[in-house]
Amino acid sequence: MSTAEFNYADAPIGVFDSGFGGLTVLSELIRKMPNEDILFVGDSARCPYGPRNLDEVRGFVLQICEWLFRRGCKLIIIACNTATAAGLQAAQMQFPIPIIGVVEPGARAAAHATRTRKVGVIATQGTVNSGAYERAIHNIDAGINITSLATPSFVEMVEQRFRDKDICERFDGEVPQLFEDETYRRVVADVLAPLCNASIDTLVLGCTHFPIIRDLIADVMGNKTTLVSSAEEAACDAQEILRRRGEIANNGRIPKRNFYTTGNDVRDFERFGSLVLGRPMMGACHLDLPECTH
Known about the structure:
Blueprint: E1 13-17, H1 23-32, E2 38-42, H2 54-70, E3 75-78, H3 81-94, E4 99-100, H4 103-113, E5 118-123, H5 125-130, H6 132-140, E6 145-150, H7 152-162, H8 165-170, H9 182-196, E7 202-205, H10 214-221, E8 226-229, H11 230-245, E9 257-261, H12 266-277, E10 285-286
Parallel strand pairs: 1-2, 1-3, 2-9, 3-4, 5-6, 5-7, 7-8, 9-10
Helix pairs in contact: 1-11, 2-3, 4-6, 4-11, 9-10
């Protein structure tokens, strides 16, 4: 079928992350565009990306983007901040479809939201080391003062809680309720103390795990600090790109959503996904990717 005959409105959106954190992007995407077909890949076998060399992560990005592109995706979201910092530009140069990350949308929203021009960023060590948010924010407003803080303990906290099968399998409430214990609040307060003392008025949640504990972060930072979710902003960008291109799926169609994990954790992946999405995730499959040679 020629490009002219292909109906891009019916093509899927590809989304991938180093694990399940990118499901927060997917959740926003489904909320904004409920009729879209979606292919989601969680690269659990090579998770976490944060401590890895950025060249290595760039290879992972190109490999997964190629897999999604070959399956007809009309747009790809790199739903991982570290992967965005490492491989977004390389992927955009290699593939002829829109590919967006989570850094630039979050950076733009933060630059537009701040009144004092003092912005904080919390992210993995890899994202902080890359300087991606600093560059993206300063490309919009070079006068903004940025305080970045690596908070890998937040990722560990979320994943450890989700791996508690006894609790999660009995749980039927909203995900934030899993973190209502005062112990979690103390951990978050201790980690964010440097930002609480930095007089920021806007904080970027620069990891897709962090919207899961957004309520805790908001409680610690106070109501004078605006929180910007890179996950939410990336979903907004995807919607706007497809709207401008006339490629949003038609209303009334039944969407197909397919989930893949590169790890051997298919059942755990489904359980995590069901919690994050707030609806059953069934039929996830194992994806066996060859050793990356990029």
